Amino acid sequence: MVVVGAGLSGLNAALILERWGFEVDVVEAKTRVGGRLWTLDHLPGSPEGGGNVMGAQYGRVVHMAHHLDIALRTPPRTLPSDYLIGDERISRDSWASAAANPLPEAWRTIPPQRLMGKLNETNPLLKTRAWHDPNLMASDQSAEVGLKALGFPNAAIELINANNSYGNNLSDTSLMALYRIMGEFGRLSGPALAVQEAILGNMRLPEAMAKQLSRPVSLGEPVVAIRHSPSRVQVALASGKTLEADAAILALPLPALEQIEINLSAAQTTLLKQIDYHKVVQLHCIVEAPFWEAAGWSGSWWTDGLLGRIFTRPIPNTSRYNMTVWINGDHCDPLNALDEAACTQTITQALWQLVPEARDVTSVGQLVRWSIDPYAGGVWALWRPGQAGTAHGAIRAPTGRLFFAGEHTAEAYRGMEGAMESGERAALEIMRVLA
Q1: What mean pLDDT is predicted for residues 228-236?
Q2: How far apart are CA 27 and CA 3, in angstroms?
Q3: Could you confirm whether domain 279-372 is CATH 3.60.21.10?
């Protein structure tokens, strides 16, 4: 067997196939395992440049962490957010009464980061299996149109669009995809809301999984072409090597898969060009002292401008803080058009303008731009209106001896758990064919 991609999905598939007695070669284009997990170990506090937390419902992820003795903890609490709306800074305690709060009277008490949660008042996807109801999914439409039809005021829609983690813009985002995500959150309650992280960094999980394999992962080996027949697969590497196998699992984000010369079905070839990936730009900074306290601010910010959201959390057992500027969606486009130095300078200048007192105690650590990473293309797959109920099924359908994994192919979950689920499913598909 050949598994292309050493993220969580590929590694989980490889471990399962090895347990069943298959010989497995895992090849990875990057010089590290983990895919879109990336712990920034070179920075104080080791912040996460990729997947930050293990959700409360991530059973496969947590089980694997326990099995491999990866110690977990509840993450240090991120400092509460104040708001920057236009040019007005609003404390979180005065949000409801602030003159700069643009929401109508009945909505004014809802902070911007909670507005999308109003979808659960009418959510048809609070039951997991409703995601597979073709009649319901046939009514899908853009989130922008759907939110207006549900009575969301324009000001609320504009605030949601300013910092939407689940679409690059609301006009190209599936309303049913948002319902699905909000429904997932809505099904959690009480202690189940707790999230976890690996104490030494989330990258420790894929690293430990890779060490369990009988054969080491081949790092720095991009795949350039794949040939397949009803009984055999040939995988050609950029280094000139060729691997032959009974079957292959392609555990890659779609933008990476699109770079490989491969004969796919017409439907899959079309979807490769149609499925969007979420854009994210992060700037990770280290703060030496809590500059916000003297000014009476909380320490984190939610903005409707260039800076998106600013998350600040203490570094355990120190007096320092990790601060991450997190920018979403189409707002990343002008930043991604800049080189690294210019992009970093643009963000830091906006940060100093927002909080000038931060300048003397804050240092820049790492710029992260997933959209311009050729082996990622973004942080996760997005569904356009009309794709929500069908695209993920079509894109994961096996083609001959080729099988597909990755969070974009997951049926029940998203994120890290979706990746693990998809690797498990792809391994089962191979077993059914070869058995």
Answers
A1: 94
A2: 6
A3: no
